[in-house]
């Protein structure tokens, strides 16, 4: 086994153990998708979950990427790839199955899109969107070998082109957008980070149940704000309400009114 193959195997093993991953499909996908194929050539700027600043890798050997680290996409904007263990945990919680249709909003450079592609298989589909045109173009180039992935430059708050079994939001918002709820198929699942202006908040899983929805907090998170996330004190109060209410018990509702649950 090469040094790179051994590093990738340890990477998957550590994530599986840390997050208690239940999905074999997810672990197989993590093992199969080369992380270096979704980044520019190294050396790279990386940082651990708790670190305040980046450190440079000593060289361009991709073995340095097989650790639970964030990799800078645009360090000036503090825009990074997702932390592997965190997003593996979220994907595991969403119980993604073969043949599922997945919508991914904020796909970045496409690494997790490729993992989702492997999980849903050739009869499933992944629609990956990013509001940053340059990122969307780069992701589309990196994802060419993955025939069941379609990449679009677009705003996931304005249009979702099809109904989905799973919707994953890779940016922070004040509340779940009604469009995302409407796009869920029966028993569909949505994962959305609900955050304050300081980027801190909680990832919330929402499941369509019959004519309504059920929301529950999954885990605390710090994440880049989504385009269109409100910047007023009222937006922060709405986000705070969602975080508190979903943390106490599963929250059931039928519709949204001004960002908050309503009977509909």
Explain how this protein is built:
This protein has 264 residues and is an alpha/beta fold. Helix content is 30%, strand content 29%. The chain has helices spanning 3-19, 24-32, 84-93, 111-120, 133-142, 178-183, 233-248, and strands at 45-47, 55-56, 70-74, 79-80, 101-105, 125-130, 149-153, 164-169, 184-195, 200-209, 212-222, 251-253, 255-257, 260-262. The strands form 3 sheets. It has an 8-stranded mixed sheet, sandwiched between helices. Strand 10 and strand 11 (212-222) form a beta hairpin. The longest helix has 17 residues, at 3-19. The N and C termini lie far apart (58 Å). 42% of the residues are buried. The model has no long low-confidence stretch (mean pLDDT 91).
Give the overall shape, derived from the CA principal axes.
Answer: globular
Mean pLDDT across all amino acids: 91
Per DSSP, the total helix count is 7
Termini Cα gap: 58 Å
Strand order of the largest sheet: 7-6-5-8-9-10-11-12
- The count of DSSP E runs of length 2 or more, i.e. the number of strands, is 14
Structural class: alpha/beta
Largest sheet: 8 strands, mixed
Radius of gyration: 18 Å
Query: Per DSSP, what share of the residues sits in E-state strands of 2 or more residues?
Result: 25-35%
Runs in which pLDDT lies below 50 for 5 or more consecutive residues are: none
- The helicity comes to 25-40%
């Amino acid at each position: 086994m090469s040094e790179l193959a051994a590093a990738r195997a340890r990477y998957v093993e550590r994530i599986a153990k840390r997050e208690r991953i239940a999905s074999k499909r997810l672990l197989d996908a993590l093992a199969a998708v080369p992380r270096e194929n979704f980044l520019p050539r190294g050396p790279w700027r990386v940082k651990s979950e708790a670190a305040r600043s980046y450190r440079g890798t000593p060289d361009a050997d991709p073995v340095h990427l097989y650790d639970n680290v964030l990799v800078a996409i645009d360090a000036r904007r503090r825009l990074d790839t997702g932390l592997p263990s965190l997003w593996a945990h979220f994907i595991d919680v969403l119980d993604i199955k073969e043949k599922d249709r997945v919508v991914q909003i904020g796909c970045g450079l496409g690494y997790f899109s490729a993992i989702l592609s492997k999980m849903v298989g050739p009869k499933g589909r992944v629609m990956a969107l990013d509001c940053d045109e340059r990122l969307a173009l780069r992701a589309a180039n990196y994802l060419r070998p993955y025939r069941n992935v379609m990449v679009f430059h677009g705003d996931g708050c304005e249009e979702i082109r099809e109904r989905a079994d799973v919707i994953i939001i890779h940016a922070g918002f004040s509340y779940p957008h009604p469009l995302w709820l409407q796009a869920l198929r029966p028993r569909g699942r949505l994962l959305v980070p609900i955050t304050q202006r300081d980027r801190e908040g909680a990832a919330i899983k929402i499941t369509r149940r019959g004519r309504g929805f059920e929301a529950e907090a999954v885990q605390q998170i710090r994440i880049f704000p989504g385009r269109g996330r409100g910047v007023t004190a009222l937006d922060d109060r709405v986000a705070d309400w969602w975080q508190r209410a979903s943390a106490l018990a599963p929250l059931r509702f039928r519709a949204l009114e001004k960002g908050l649950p309503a009977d509909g």
